[in-house]
Specification:
The chain is elongated and about 155 Å long. The longest helix has about 35 residues. A hairpin with a 4-residue loop joins strand 5 and strand 6. Helix 2 packs parallel to helix 3. By secondary structure, the protein is α+β, with helices and mostly antiparallel strands. Strands 2-6-5-4 form a 4-stranded mixed β-sheet, with no helix packed on it. The protein folds into 5 domains: about 80 residues, no CATH class; about 35 residues; about 70 residues, Sandwich (Immunoglobulin-like); about 80 residues, Immunoglobulins (Immunoglobulin-like, Sandwich); about 70 residues, no CATH class. The protein is built from 8 helices and 17 strands.
Length: about 375
């Protein structure tokens, strides 16, 4: 609505029909001053507007005392004189011819399309075919240790094997919920089904101990926690502080005992390791030590002889977790060989630590 029309609406109290005629004139950018007189009824306004619309001088109609039906007759006479109707008839004839041509072309196109559809009817029917594909569940729970070997076909209830099936290829590397997508194609369209895969932690923590067995002398105190090398979980990380230790060792009573180490991660996956402890009676030739077979053996005969220490102290490192007992035997064998060769009077085998962790056995000679 133009500013001028807005001013007219504010100045005069037009009826709804008069306002409509003024709006039509305003939309076609006609001179509103010619029909703004509120004394014109809406039909008179219409006749004047139609004259202006067809570039006919409306001055013969601009008298509100002329009835609207008389105005209409005058307008028709003016239109006939100006050849408006003849021109309109020609326009109508051209429009009819155009419609006929368009209808003819449309008919040709429809016929051609129908022929093409008939030739390719089997292919086209694939667009309307119902693709049958169904999963037997919407959600599955799988442990992270099994995710690499997941068989997605196990969750398919049924499908038409003539269609192409594309299994999910979503990469899953951690715990959590994943939405994987199945696709099945019939050649022209694709159907998708989604499966929620809940991956949970089913991997036990790993407890590494410096040994699996201990031999101690009667009365030797031991600290079970010192044999813990590490406790690692794939999700929770370091769990050494969460290890629970159960021990039935009686250091003053010779016999066989066990120290049991247990740890759980947040998913309640539990790992258990143990150390077998053998408590031996005291022997005069052995100095007590709280590690497997640790001793300070001295040949009494050698003590009576002046033996010069030529044997070199040596460290025997653990090669793998849990082989502490095996490495101890190697260290002991070496120590005894030096005594036999009279290169030392006695020896002592103690744990060798690095960064507060037992990494091997150290043989020291006297």
């Amino acid at each position: 609505m133009s500013k001028k029309l807005d001013e007219l609406f504010q100045k005069y109290a037009y009826s709804t029909q008069q306002k409509y005629q003024l709006r039509l004139a305003d939309e076609k950018r006609l001179d509103l001053d010619i029909i703004k007189n509120p004394k014109y009824d809406w039909e008179q306004m219409r006749e004047i507007r139609l004259c202006m619309e067809y570039n006919i001088d409306p001055s013969a109609l601009c008298d509100y005392n002329i009835p609207s039906d008389s105005m209409e007759k005058i307008r028709i006479h003016l239109f006939e004189k100006a050849g408006i109707y003849k021109e309109n008839n020609e326009i109508i004839q051209r429009k009819r011819l155009k419609r006929f041509i368009l209808c003819f072309l449309l008919l040709i196109m429809i016929s051609g399309t129908a022929a093409i559809m008939y030739v390719n009817r089997d292919y086209i029917m694939l667009y309307f075919e119902n693709i049958n594909f169904e999963l037997n569940c919407q959600k599955v729970d799988i442990g992270i240790s099994k995710i690499k070997n997941i068989d997605y076909t196990a969750y398919i209830k049924n499908y038409d094997k003539k269609n192409k099936l594309i299994l999910p290829n979503t990469k899953i590397n951690d715990i959590g919920n994943y939405t994987v997508t199945y696709k099945i194609k019939n050649g022209v369209k694709t159907k998708e089904e989604h499966l929620i895969v809940h991956v949970y932690d089913d991997i036990k923590p790993i407890i590494n101990l410096s040994t699996t067995s201990l031999v101690i002398q009667e009365g030797t105190n031991i600290s079970p926690s010192k044999y813990i090398v590490s406790a690692i979980d794939n999700i929770d990380g370091d769990l050494r502080k969460d290890i629970k230790i159960e021990s039935n060792v009686k250091v003053n009573v010779p016999g066989n005992y066990k120290i049991v180490y247990r740890v759980r991660d947040t998913e309640k996956n539990e790992e258990k390791k143990q150390i077998v402890v053998t408590v031996k009676k005291n022997e005069s030739s052995t100095i007590n030590n709280d590690f497997p077979g640790s001793s300070n053996k001295k040949d009494t005969k050698q003590q009576n002889r002046p033996i010069r220490k030529t044997a070199k102290d040596k460290i025997f490192y653990f090669k793998t977790i849990g082989d502490a007992d095996k490495i101890y035997k190697q260290a002991e064998k070496y120590a005894k060989s030096m005594i036999i060769l009279k290169k030392a009077r006695g020896y002592e085998i103690k744990p060798f630590k690095k960064d507060s962790i037992n990494v091997g056995w150290k043989v020291s000679f006297e």
